[in-house]
Design goal:
Blueprint: E1 7-10, E2 17-20, H1 29-42, E3 44-47, H2 54-62, E4 67-75, H3 91-98, E5 115-122, E6 130-134, H4 135-141, H5 144-150, E7 154-157, H6 159-165, E8 187-190, E9 192-194, E10 201-203, E11 209-210, H7 217-231, E12 237-240, E13 247-251, E14 255-259, E15 269-275, H8 279-282
Length: 287
């Protein structure tokens, strides 16, 4: 079967592309294989105006491999349609605000995610974008002395740590049992990750990373913050302004991402399908 010719516009960054002229809900096999190859090369693919249903998004995600979870809302809208008040004690608001720090998904889990399919359903009138950062280009841009210094370094990753550092820990008496909080043990991961399909070296840092063995807590925190600050600079970053119906898929092994703030009196409803990592390449050193 011949693949559809992809209409691809690279982003004005070291990574990413906008892909148009196709419908994700009915891709033939050959076209999907071209999309997969482009995804490995560009890291982030943006498909405007797809308006996928729940079942269609799950099916598209499954084409990339097994799922860590199939379809989860990231939303400040309650089940009854009301918008959550932006108050410190709201546990969902805490998670949404935590996601505004640079991170890779599920590095705090025994097996890190492979990637994600993300769709926009309701977006605020302004703000609420998502940003990504190219950790392949970030590693390549490091000076040789820094590359040598961090070559064998590792860091622990924990959602408990990252939420606590941001002042967003769940209340002790909270009934909220959000995804990831059930993992009590911090997961140990290298600071330099080898991408299992491309062989590229990528920085593995972000808000969940802490406590580099052999460094004091202060020195560890300083180094990790410096690496994130260095990585997340133009031309290695891209900010996407969402429109309803947009679908993106990103490679969690080579990109970091974060949500951007918005006026939480306005609704923002996104749906997340998380691609499961291969335990052979994405398992933490703790397992």
């Amino acid at each position: 079967m011949t693949a559809t010719t992809l209409n691809v516009r690279p982003l004005d960054a070291t990574f990413g592309a906008v892909v148009t002229g196709l419908a994700l809900r009915n891709l033939d096999i050959a076209t999907f294989l071209d999309i997969y190859a482009l995804w490995l090369d560009r890291g982030l693919l943006i498909f405007p105006g797809q308006h996928l249903t729940r079942e269609e998004q799950i099916f598209f995600g499954q084409r990339f491999g097994p799922l860590e979870f199939d379809y989860a809302p990231l939303s400040n809208v309650r089940a009854d349609g009301t918008v959550r008040d932006d108050i410190p004690q709201d546990e969902i608001i805490k998670i949404l605000k935590g996601n505004m720090g640079w991170h890779c998904d599920s590095t705090y889990m025994p097996v890190q995610a492979k990637g994600a399919v993300f769709s926009a359903h309701t977006v605020p009138a302004k703000d609420g974008e998502t940003e990504w950062a190219d950790m392949r280009a970030a590693y390549e841009a490091l000076d040789n002395a820094t590359k040598a210094r961090i070559a064998d370094m590792k860091a622990h990753h924990s959602l408990h740590y990252s939420q606590a550092r941001a002042g967003l820990s769940p209340a002790e008496d909270s009934e909220y049992s959000g995804y990831g909080f059930h993992v009590a043990e911090a997961q140990l991961r290298p600071l330099v990750k080898i991408h299992p399909e491309t062989g590229a070296k990528c920085l593995m840092v972000g808000r969940h990373a802490h406590a580099i063995p052999g460094l004091t807590p202060e020195d560890s925190e300083r180094l990790l913050d410096e690496l994130v600050d260095f990585a997340c600079q133009p031309p290695r970053v891209y900010r996407h302004r969402w429109a309803p119906g947009d679908v993106v898929v990103w490679d969690n092994r080579s990109l970091m991402h974060r949500a951007c703030p918005w006026d939480m009196r306005e609704a923002r409803v996104m749906h997340h399908t998380r691609l499961a990592g291969d335990p052979a390449s994405e398992a933490s050193l703790s397992h």
